[in-house]
Amino acid sequence: MITTALKILLVEDYDVDADLITMQINKIVENSEIEVVDNVEDCKNKLHNFVPDVVISDYNLPTCTGLDILKLTKSFDDSLPFIFVTGTIDDDELAANTILSGASGFILKKNMNILSEKLKPLLKKVVFNMLEQEELREKIRKNKIAVNQIYQYLNEMNAENDEQRLNISKIRANIDNITLDNDAKNA
C-alpha cells in the first residue's frame, strides 16, 4: 500500500471506467485525491488549480485525444508523470509513440481487473520521485539559510582597514556567484 498522499487527475469520459479506475487506485493508494475530467479545458483548469502529482488518461475522448492531453500536461509541467489507461492502444507503434511523446507508461483497459497490480509500480515511481524532489528542495532551503547566515555575519563584521573591507567584498562576490550557479543548476 502506498501511504504517501497522491493527487491524481483522471481524464476519462466513461463514468463506469472512471469509477473502476478510482476503485483500483484506492486498492493501492491509502490517501488519494482524484479529480475526473473529460476534455482539454477542464484538464487545463485542474492542472492549474488542482495541481496533480500524476495524470492518468484515456486515449479516446469525445473532443480530443489522449495525446492532446499529454501535450497539454507536458506544456504545463514537463516532469509531471502521465499514464495512459486505455482500450485504444492495441498496436505496438501507437504505444511506442505515446512513450516517445512523454508518457510514463500505459495500461490496457482489458486488464482493468488487475489494474492495481499494473499501476502500483508506476505510482511507486511517482512517489519515489516526489520524495527525491522534496529532499532536494530541503537541501536548497538549508543552503539558502546558511548563505543568509554568512551574509549576516559579514554585515556584523567591523572591518578595521581597507584590506579587510576588500576581502569581505570578495567573499560576498564569491558567495553571490556560487548562489547564482546553484540556482541555475536547480532551475
Explained architecture:
This protein starts with 5 loop residues before the first strand and ends with a helix. The model has no long low-confidence stretch (mean pLDDT 85). A five-stranded parallel beta sheet has the order 2-1-3-4-5, sandwiched between helices. Helices cover 59% and strands 13% of the residues. With 187 residues, it is an alpha/beta fold. It has helices at 15-28, 40-49, 66-76, 92-100, 115-156, 162-186; strands spanning 6-11, 32-37, 54-57, 82-86, 105-108. It is built from six helices and five strands. It folds into two domains: 6-133, Rossmann fold (3-Layer(aba) Sandwich), CATH 3.40.50.2300; 135-186.
Question: What would the keywords be for this entry?
Answer:
2 domains; five-stranded parallel sheet; CheY-like_superfamily; 13% strand; 187 residues; alpha/beta; phosphoprotein; Rossmann fold; elongated
Strand-helix topology:
Layout: E1 6-11, H1 15-28, E2 32-37, H2 40-49, E3 54-57, H3 66-76, E4 82-86, H4 92-100, E5 105-108, H5 115-156, H6 162-186
Parallel strand pairs: 1-2, 1-3, 3-4, 4-5
Helix pairs in contact: 1-5, 2-3, 5-6
InterPro entries: Bact_response_regulator (IPR050595), CheY-like_superfamily (IPR011006), Sig_transdc_resp-reg_receiver (IPR001789)
Modified residues (4-aspartylphosphate): 58
Keywords: Phosphoprotein
